[in-house]
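new request in #modeling-help
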Amino acid sequence: MMDELEEPHPDDAGLERLLRARLPRHPAPPRLRAALLRTASPPPSRTAWAMQWMPPLASAAAMALIMLLWIAPRLPNGPLEPVRLLTHAVMSEHARTILWGESRADVVPAVLPRAMEESGVALSLVFVGDDAIQLVNAQPTYLEGRRGIQLTYRDQDGHAVTYMILPAGPLVLPDRGRVQIDRWRPLVRTEAGFSFIIWKQQNFLCLLVSDLVSDADLAKLEQYFVKVRSSTEPYQVY
Amino acid sequence: MTDEDFLRQALQHLDALHNLAVYLTRNGSEAEDLVQETYVRALRFSHRFQPGTHLRAWLFQILRNTFLTFYRLRERESPVAEEGVPEREAPMFQDAPLQDTERSAVHMDLERAFTALPEEFKTPLLLAEVEGLALEDVARIMECPIGTVKSRIFRAKERLRALLKDYGGGLEGLTR
């Protein structure tokens, strides 16, 4: 190899000349030069940046703080999450009952024993209604892995009220959102056009749901709650 | 030296860098990307550049290393032409140039022959014979001894001559 290098080819000079003279050169396009100049243009100084963005940043931070303080009390805390799941499931079941469920008070004596038998939730005492509201259906149900019983009432204005009794298990109701009603302190919530009153009774989780959402209607629902709460005694059959 | 000063000096070598990038990538837009990446890296590491040393060689070195790192891996996956032949392995000089277009085809054919050289031959030949860099600088760019650079340039010329022989008069035909 070194011998070869020590003896240049006779055409070397011609080839070198050819390369320098004839090999096309590819100068950079002007846009590349412009792009590189842009790349290196110094960014605005940190101080200028801070001065420019400080007012909107401060404003945004203040707004975020206000929103946080306003929203925080309304946010569900940890233990409420299973309750939210249940309320959503109960909401669906309530809507289905309104659309498709039986609403004949005369069938209740026949269907109630069967609902208790199939649900495993027996009722030693049950509120069947009065002048304001009437029990119109009873059926077993299965929500979020809990088998229970669902009682359907209809008030004199035609509002459906679903009363769900499910095994509570280890579920803990949060303190936030509790409302004193008569001698009880259940959880009261309004969501997606429905009102919920949720409480624990013995080992059961009980939910009352209806589309009574205005203040006047909610007061009615609280009255219904007092009636069913004081006149219903569930117990676990198995 | 500020970034702006550094860039102003570095941009004096933009055409040469772009020229090498085109011969390495064989693709105009990739060459531009390669040059841009080279300058970005040069600016990022400008504090490592020692004023008074050969900026042109340092930039060539960054460009070549960038090419080897990012572009050569991709180059191994040769695109396949419609006929099923890898585009970059298409046979060169398969048709003899017509007499009346011979002179005008010289540039194109020399370029194609040069482009066909392997990178380790093409780069030192271009840097030394076309850009006029000293062999010491080429060795630094290629990160190899000067003897290896000389050997590669020698072999590059041999290969180039062999490729150019496919033209009727060979090198003589091109230089007349």
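bot summary: DSSP finds nine helices and no strands in chain B.
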